[in-house]
Amino acid sequence: MSIETKEEFRPKIVAFCCNWCSYAGADLAGSSRLSYPADVKIIRVPCSCRVNPMFILRAFEKGADGVILCGCHPGDCHYSTGNYYARRRMTLLFSMLDYIGVENGRTRVEWVSAAEGVKFSTTMNEFVEKVRSLGKNVRLEDLRCRN
Amino acid sequence: MQELINRAKELLADGTVARVLGWKAGDLPYNPEPAYFEKEEDFENFVYNGFCGANLSKYMIEASKLEGKTLVCLKPCDTYSFNQLIKEHRVDREKAYIIGVGCKGKLDIEKIKGMGIKGIESISGAEITDGADTLTIQTLYGEKTCSYADAMLERCHVCKGKEHKIYDELIGESKETKDAERFDSVAAIEAMSPEEKFAFFQKELSKCIRCNACRNVCPACSCRKCVFDSNKFDSSQKANVDSFEEKMFHIIRAFHVAGRCTDCGECSRVCPQGIPLHLFNRKFIKDINEFYGEYQAGEDTDSRGPLTDFTFDDVEPGIVAERG
Question: Which ranges carry the F420-non-reducing hydrogenase iron-sulfur subunit D domain (chain A) (predicted)?
Answer without folding.
Answer: 13-135
